Structure formats: C-alpha cells, structure tokens
C-alpha cells in the first residue's frame, strides 16, 4: 500500500485520499481516490502486471467502438498501476428485480451489440482447445477437489464426450466477434447519468456471438424466468439480424451457457480451494442449476445432467 501511495503522490491525484473500493476474483486490488465530490478509481495490478497491457489495449478498442469503458487518467505500467474514471457504486446486481430486469437487460443487450462492433482481429481466439481448457476446470476443481470424487473410467469418458458435443455446437454459431468474457451484473455499472458503464474486460477474446449474451441473461449471481430470458435472447438475435430459427438460436445460447457454467463451476471451486476466497461457494448452486437445466433439454447432454445431479445432490 505504501508503494501505491507514493506513486499517487507523483500524479495529478496527489491530494486525494485513498479508500478501499471493489472486491475482485483476481489478484487485482481497487481503491477509490476522493477529493470532496471528485473521485477516481486506482487499479493495483502489481501482482499480475502482465494483464495491464491487455487492459490498455482492450480499453482502446472499446472506446473506439463507442462503448462506455472507464477513461484512463494516469498509468504506471512498470509497477502495474492505473487511475481510472469512477463509474460509481451502483452495479446491475444492486438494482435488478422482477419488475425491471427486462428493461435493464434490453439496455445491456444494446451494449453487447456495440461491443461486438469493436475490433476483435488481434484478440486471442476462443477456439476449441481453449473452450476445453476452460471446461476441464470442472472435473479437476469441482468434481475431484471440491466434491472429492474419484470418477470411473466410464464417467470420465461420459464427461469428455459430452464436452466435445458442447464445443461442437458452440463452434457452429457465428464466430469472430469481440467477447468481453465476464459480462454480468457485477461488471455492469449504472452511472450517475443512467448510462451503462462496463468494467473488468481485460480478458477479452475473439469468439462466439452468444457468449456475452449468455453471461448477461444466465448470470451466476441472479436468475429470472426462463421464458422471459428466451424472449430476450431472441430479441438479441433479431437486433443482430441473424436469420436462424428460434430453436437453433436457443440451442446455440444454451450450449454456450453450458460451456460457460461448466467452466465457472471449476473456477468457483478453485477460488475457494486455491485462493481461499470462499464467498464464491454460495454461487455454485445457481451455476449448477443452469448446467443441469440446459443439459436436460438436449439428448447430447442429458447423461451429463444425470451425473451432475447425482454427484452434487448431497453437497449443493
């Protein structure tokens, strides 16, 4: 902290006080700088400096696409520090409810459409190998390390075959768009001017058209009626001008959701076991529910739904 304070004193924010701000699943730390009514956000990436170049690069791409990402006021890449525009303290998660979620989600869908116009050409590719690298986290961290399961050879084969089918369907849909990768209610801010501001996008990739959509509509921290979520998903399809049937698009959406939520089961387990961040364990039941519900709807994935229901029953 002393090192951060020393750097702030060399910037135009030297007279601002420093207070704790946001929690984060990564090793980044955030502080709010304050001088009366004026505020800014200090991002300390000193423990993962390699993420800073990506953050700066992605920020520039988003701003060029007229997406509301935080302005960067000061930077010190050598130490891993940035001072950013402060979007306030109101996350989507703080305000979403059964009465307003459709309006707020429609607003966020319009932001996804803008994000997908950003230049994704130089971003890492969300290819088959990477889709599987993410999904493999479930078996290692959730099934084996959190639930202490020893899978049989037949169960391992079932998991591997099902993940193969999931990635096949994910890759059937249009690719090549800018993917935020964590577009959910904790990373969408409602600014004082009621516009949407987005944060935590430094891991952006070039990938599938439904990834950010499913991150938004099948949020690991809040859930709404599936029939309304389907309508919103199809609203995105229509705005995007995709000429595919309802059934095809919803299958793309569901399989993308399975890929994401299978990964997240592994990540939440890893955050608890490896990083001692146990708060994410409470979010596993909803994430698991998303996987089982979607997997039960399709013949290719029903056996995985049965397996996960069985092994998770006494734990979640």
User: What is the strand tally?
Assistant: 9
Flag low-confidence runs.
Answer: none
Q: Provide the helix percentage.
A: 40-55%
Distance between the termini: 38 Å
What does this protein look like?
It is a single chain. This protein has 316 residues and is α+β, with helices and mostly antiparallel strands. It is built from eleven helices and nine strands. It has helices spanning 2-8, 50-64, 92-95, 101-115, 128-146, 153-172, 211-217, 226-240, 246-273, 284-295, 302-312; strands at 17-20, 29-35, 38-44, 72-76, 81-84, 177-179, 188-190, 196-198, 205-207. A five-stranded antiparallel beta sheet has the order 1-2-3-5-4, with helices on one face. The protein is globular and about 60 Å long. The mean pLDDT is 95.
Task: Please describe the topology of this protein.
Elements: H1 2-8, E1 17-20, E2 29-35, E3 38-44, H2 50-64, E4 72-76, E5 81-84, H3 92-95, H4 101-115, H5 128-146, H6 153-172, E6 177-179, E7 188-190, E8 196-198, E9 205-207, H7 211-217, H8 226-240, H9 246-273, H10 284-295, H11 302-312
């Amino acid at each position: 902290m002393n090192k951060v304070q020393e750097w702030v004193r060399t910037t135009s924010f030297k007279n601002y006080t420093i207070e704790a701000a946001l929690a984060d699943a990564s090793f980044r730390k955030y502080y709010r700088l304050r001088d009366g009514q004026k505020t800014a956000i200090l991002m300390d990436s000193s423990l993962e400096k390699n993420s800073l170049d990506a953050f700066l690069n992605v920020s520039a791409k988003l701003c060029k696409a007229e997406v509301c990402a935080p302005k960067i006021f000061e930077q010190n890449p050598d130490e891993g520090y940035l001072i950013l525009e402060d979007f306030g303290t109101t996350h989507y998660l703080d305000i979403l409810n059964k009465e307003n979620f459709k309006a707020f989600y429609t607003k966020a869908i319009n932001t996804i459409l803008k994000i997908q116009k950003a230049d994704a050409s130089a971003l890492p590719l969300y290819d088959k190998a990477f889709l599987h690298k993410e999904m493999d986290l479930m078996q290692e961290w959730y099934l084996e390390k959190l639930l202490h399961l020893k899978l049989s050879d037949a169960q391992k084969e079932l998991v591997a075959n099902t993940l193969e089918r999931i990635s096949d369907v994910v890759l059937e849909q249009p690719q090549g768009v800018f993917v935020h990768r964590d577009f959910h209610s904790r990373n969408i801010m409602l600014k004082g001017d009621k516009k949407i501001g987005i944060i935590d996008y430094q891991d952006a990739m070039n990938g599938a058209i439904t990834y950010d959509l499913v991150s938004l509509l099948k949020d690991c921290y809040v859930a709404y009626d599936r029939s309304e979520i389907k309508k919103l998903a199809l609203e995105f399809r229509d705005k995007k001008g995709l000429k595919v049937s309802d059934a095809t698009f919803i299958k793309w959406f569901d399989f993308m959701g399975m890929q994401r939520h299978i990964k997240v089961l592994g990540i939440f387990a890893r955050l608890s076991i490896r990083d001692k961040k146990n708060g994410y364990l409470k979010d596993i039941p909803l994430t698991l529910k998303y996987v089982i519900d979607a997997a039960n709807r399709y013949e290719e994935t029903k056996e995985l739904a049965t397996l996960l229901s069985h092994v998770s029953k006494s734990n979640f």
